[in-house]
Known about the structure:
The structure holds 2 protein chains of 2 kinds. Chain A is an all-alpha fold. Helices cover 84% and strands 0% of the residues of chain A. The longest helix of chain A is centred in the middle third of the chain and has 27 residues, at 16-42. Chain A is rod-shaped and about 55 Å long. Chain B has a domain at 355-498.
Amino acid sequence: xxNKDAEHEAEDFQPKGALAFFIVLMxxxxxxxxxxxxxxxxxx
Amino acid sequence: xxxxxxxxxxxxxxxxxxxxxxxMVLLFIGIYGGLMQTMFRxxxxxxxxxxxxxYYKGLTxxxxxxxxxxxTFFAVALGNALxxxxxxxxxxxxxxxxxxxxxxxxxxxxxxVILIGEATVLYTFYPPLKAHPLFYxxxxxxxVGSWVAFFNWVPMYLQWRKENEGKKTPMAVVGMFTTFxxxxxxxxxxxxxxxxxxxxxxxxxxxxVNVMLARTLFWFFGHPLVYFWLLPAYVMYYVFMPKLAGxxxxxxxxxxxxxxxxxxxxxxxxxHHQYMDPAIGSQWKLLHGVFTxxxxxxxxxxxxxxxxxxxxxxxxxxxxxxxxxxxxxPYFDKEKWFFAYLILGLIIFIFGGIGGIINASYQMxxxxxxxxxxxxxxxxxxxxxxxxxxxxxxLYLVGQFMHxxxxxxxxxxxxxxxxxxxxxxxxxxLKFGGLLGxxxxxxxxxxxxxxxxxxxxxxWIFYIDISVVGGVIxxxxxxxxxxxxxxxxxxxxxxTEEGSFVTFPISEAYHDEPATWLRNFKPYIIIAVIxxxxxxxxxxxxxxxATYGGSPPYSPNSPVPLR
Lengths: 44, 563
């Protein structure tokens, strides 16, 4: 029964989780990039 | 025979097995060299205990065998497998064997001169470091062999298009052709560098070489080389991974767009490796930096598309909520051991990708330039997603082409996890040490890590030591893999009729868009050539105007010229 539900859900699939993952990824990239950018600035 | 299988000729099956097994031996020698690198840098050894020679000899065979030889062989073997399989056509075996023999002879020749200490020039073979002529000839044969392999696929493809008008080219073929279109264009520059500059200089026909021009031609090739490594892994991500996960590729069009974007932007980016070089105007370096950001775009599209494909699979497997699908993927399924190599590579690539964007950011490059950050970064790309995908692919291919069941699947499954743990530890040491100023391509064991040296840097020691720990764990991961690989190679094969067919896990598309504008390589190649001409003409003019005369040859062992 659960598998049938899962299959049904897969047919109407909207990649909301992938979108959320992508947003988290972009936030992570931004944080890392700016960490290095501030390191650059701190070196004068 | 089902539609998912194809019968290769015995000759091609044997060739593909050879193209996987011999480079695997060379890869192991190179990986051993990598382990020794960490020990040299920590001051544990001052001479290689087995191969002999110093840090730079080890660095050369580590880089050349792993990053150039193994990768080229695997890319050719994957193309020799996937192009005929997807088009349902037979390769011309004489041409395929000619290509394989050229590559083998060239690689063995280059490996021998490196191992006897006559080509200690690192994998970039920058002049004024000079190698024995056989090193350059060996590399040329390797590249020419790979061109022959590629041109062997072209008539098959043209014939298929004639017979299948209006049909979409299979994704695997699009990916492999993209890989080799980029490779062919990029290697033209390094062919000019080797044949007209380095080889005559090495043979003593000319006394001096233009170092800046050689470096510029190298990086015309050197950065697209990264995509030559990465794209076969992308082929496996798009074509195999969704099916291995139990789902479908979310968007067929996204995959095709990604490959076409790589054709456009892979090459006019090379001078971002030369931000600190003189002779090239900063405006042109900035232009290459902008194109480098453009080439990050297909990787970001890939991140979303593959995440969506895995989400589809995870939800089909019962995953709920925004992130629940992530826990319903076959990370530890022994029967789907190949999935672990692909997914771990993608996780590593999250960190490799942001490192690449930092390196390409013009001013920020000054923070990391020529520090240990750089090898810390590229081990998260070429020694991460690329190596893991190629190792998984090699084991899968060798099983298919030798008709053998994969042996010790538990070992095959656990190997990428061990390796990934080691890789993160080693890259942490290199990257954070690099931010403190620890240099790359330097035998720190004889200097900065040596308490008796006036150069001693106690605050780098933790990062150097942790790199050794990571390197040892990575090495153990590879040994575990090789037990499964050679266990499979030397096991008894299947002799059944069914066993003589080859099959690949080809994914279906969830959205199979028509995407007619992505069906022809020609316009993308033309635009790529225009971008290359526009971005490289001023660079070459700058280099020629700013340089005069040339440099005599040097070795890494002495500050005076060799003659």
